[in-house]
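Progress report, Aim 2. The chain analyzed during this reporting quarter is listed below.
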Amino acid sequence: MIITTAPRPSERINEQVRKLAAELSAKAIPRRNASIQKLLDMSDDNRVIIATEKEVRFYDNANEPPLYFHPSMAYVRVKRLRRGETDPLIELSGCSIGDHIIDCTAGMAADSLVFSYAVGEQGRVEALESEPILCALVREGLASYESGLPDVDAAMKRIHLSCKNHAHYLANLPNKSADIVYFDPMFRQPIMESSAISAFRTIANMDALSAEVVEHAVRVARKTVVIKENQRSGEFERLGFKRTHANTSKIAYGVIHVGSA
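Predicted structure tokens for the chain:
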């Protein structure tokens, strides 16, 4: 993989590229006005990351949009919370101010952001992403993205994102050490409609959840364990979740109420 900059980079961007290259065991090269296709051809695995003053972009096809962090629909959901409205995930999970959340499959951190805003400064959101490239893209985006709303930006920066496998992480946590454990695995039947979904899928973890992971989640949680899936999915029944439809024809949540005992 190659990591480079936009043309005429600042020293800050050059340093960011050096750090990302070391972290991801990639080759950092000067841009020298090379096209996206030329960079892809130069890469040993047809993958390129470009750091710009605004964002960090991932390419694996010159003819498709790059993948980069953007809060997308999470921003709309948080704005609803700001107006005092409800959010299905927050309501169904029993999330409240001060809660400790573990988002086991962070992805683009959309649900992590909604949780982070909901739990406030007193709470904590640990977001786990097992895939290093995706984790790096989202981490850099959370640190630099500016929504124009200071409280939303603060919620982004409060998210504790780390590159970890949730199965190993949960297995080593004490009983009742978090309030809510959340999963949003890649849907068995994809419903994502982003133009960058192709790039996302090349660097995302596509593994299904195991029953053992859910057992650990139930052990760790004080309130609920929640999964988001395609509403037609059989994962709810397979893993022992009670299916609950959200305010959409495509998404459903599964909930296991653990209680505080």
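Residues 187-193 have pLDDT under 50 and may be disordered. Residues 73-257 form a domain with the Rossmann fold fold (CATH 3.40.50.150). These observations will guide the mutagenesis work planned for the next reporting period.
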